[in-house]
Amino acid sequence: MSLVVQAVRNGTGKALRRPEWITTMATIDVHNLSGAKVGTLELSDEVFGSVNKELLWEAVKHYRAAQRSGTHATKNKKLVAGSGKKLWKQKGTGRARVGSVRSPLWRHGGTVHGPQPRSYDYDFPRKKVLGALRSALASKLADGKLVVVNTFELADAKAAGTAAVNSPAKSPVKTKAFRAALDTLHVEKTAVLVEAAASDNLVLSTRNLKGVELVGSSEVHPWHLLRYELAVFSQAAMEKLQATLVASLPKARTEEVA
User: Fold this and answer.
1) pLDDT at residue 111 tops 60
2) Which of 53, 215, 218, 258 is the most buried (most CB within 10 A)?
3) What's the predicted TM-score (pTM) here?
4) Are strands 15-16 and 8-9 parallel, antiparallel or unpaired?
5) What is the pLDDT of residues 170-185, one digit of tens each?
């Protein structure tokens, strides 16, 4: 893929060129966990294009609504504790009529129209989620907060895994070593790690790291990319996600960009 995006012909026959800042999005360096550059990865212009802030807001709003447990509950007149006996006769006492101590008008009575357990989730088009994911990736790349590594497997972890076959008592999990690898990649605050198929060793190595979350390439959401300062993708995860996002685009749009 060349640095200059192919021109798209308009009605007058003149070639239209994308803004110059998109030309820097053609490739991204691929590093290993030691911080050394080991190659480059071509980025699709259909994925790493413009940023739709409104769509990002809608996607994050839906994600956070779906995450709500909705377990809030209040007791109405039927559920609150208390006798159901009528306290006094309806007429002749001069007092206000009342049927039960559980009346909402009374102290310790039931609650009227209080919140009840429910789901806050609602339907959200899949195309919108994928569109927001493209915008989130483009935003991360434009901010210089996107990192691609060839693999998340540590060299010493592989060696320890070989030793663990002969000695099952030893565990190949090295959380401290993985933390050191993230420091090499300049992960100073928070980061989301995206892997195509996470191994058990990778899950165990990252689950106790503060400010670090591991998600699969098929589970990553725009909320993850916006919440964490740095997004670290494995090369396999980026290629798989990029292919999915390109395939989800309308055919007319892919033909124009091509």
Assistant:
1) yes
2) 215
3) 0.73
4) antiparallel
5) 456 588 888 998 998 9
* Site of tokens 């091509």: 258
- Domain boundaries along the sequence of the chain: 8-69+122-257, 74-114
CA gap 149, 205 in Å, rounded? 17
On whether the 8-69+122-257 domain is CATH 3.40.1370.10, my answer is yes
Residue 233, pLDDT above cutoff 50: yes
194 Cβ partners below 8 Å, 6+ apart?
215, 216, 217, 220, 224, 231, 232, 233, 234, 237, 238, 241
On the question of pLDDT at 25 being above 80, the answer is no
- Identity of the residue numbered 9: R
Per residue in 186-202, is it b (16+ CB within 10 Å) or e — as a string? Answer: ebeeebbbbbbebeebb
59-66, Cβ contacts within 8 angstroms, sequence gap of 24 or more: 59/124, 59/128, 59/129, 59/132, 59/133, 59/221, 59/222, 59/223, 60/132, 60/222, 60/223, 60/226, 62/122, 62/124, 63/221, 63/222, 63/223, 64/223, 65/120, 65/121, 65/122, 66/120, 66/121, 66/122
Distance CA 82, CA 88 (A): 16
